[in-house]
Amino acid sequence: TTSPGNPCPSGAPTRRFAVSALDRSGFTNGGRTAFVPNADVTAVQKRTKTPVPLVLHVVAGECVTVDVTNLLPAPVGFSVAKLDRAEGSGGVNVGFAPDQNVAPGATRSYVYYAPTDRVGTAAIADLASPTTTKAGLYGAVVVSPASQVPGLSTEFSDPVTGAATDIGAQVLVHVPGATTSDYRDFTVTMADDDVAIGRDFMPYPTTARAGRSFINYQAAPAGDGANAFRNPGKVPWLTAYAGDPVLVHVLLAPGSESAHVFNLGGLRFPQDRFIHNSSALTARALGPWETLDAEVAGGAGGTQAAAGDYFYGDQRRPFTAVGLWGLQRVLPTPSGGTACPLLLVDGSSC
Q1: pLDDT tens track for 339-349
Q2: What is the dihedral of CA 11, 16, 21, 25, to 10 degrees?
Q3: Confidence (pLDDT) at 202
Q4: Quick one: how many helices (H) and strands (E) in the chain?
Q5: What's the pTM value of the predicted model, to 2 decimals?
């Protein structure tokens, strides 16, 4: 077995994940495979839990180990962009590199170092074959800021139950001592394998001719017009209370065919959140493998902290019409002026 190597400085704090590559056919008309946390493998195999693209949350300065088990009949790779790694954790067989893949039925470790939270979102992809990434073997590593208080660590929790968790497309992030110590962290993964809709011709293909386009392995109901955006179906809601600090990570999945334009329903975000007074955007184009870290100006509901439902998704109209969108639900803060806690208890009130 190839050694994963060690890119981490001595004494770096550690974090470890255990995931499996498996077949997920039968859930949607989307891709067939997914990286799934080992704790969820049985439920996914029994069809009692629907998988979403893998999102791993780490803290800047951590040494991260990912143990990947291959439950598929062909080799699987695990490539992570942006993070530091040694030659044994490159995740792709190229040149004279040692074998990077996980054999069927085997488990292999990959080791990475997250040097800074400026990494933001790093794409995960299976590069063992030209087809499996497109079929669903993709995801993201999100790097959060380190604690500013000695002896305390940055922590992640479930936005509904409050339980500690460092895996998932929606988490609460708690950074002791930071200017924004608590914020909602959402990850949106867009993907398509439509080779026709993005071509240079007019008119665009009709909905009936469009291929598969997904947000987190799901598509909203296809359609257009005044009543098209009443309910996104199984596409995830991005739920927050008005004024909650919100950071939205967007990944255009490796293997996608077209460029997409991500929009947050008119809410603004800086072009570079680490530059003071950076240009404000309401939409940004992304190509496959590209990522966006959108820190919503004013938090949920924008600078007016206005409650209501807001669009999010692809602003290119043909992709909007085929279901590449979802809704942000901004709940009102309670009367009396008491700030609403970040924790969602029942999804509708503090």
Answers
A1: 556 665 444 44
A2: -140
A3: 63
A4: 2, 21
A5: 0.93
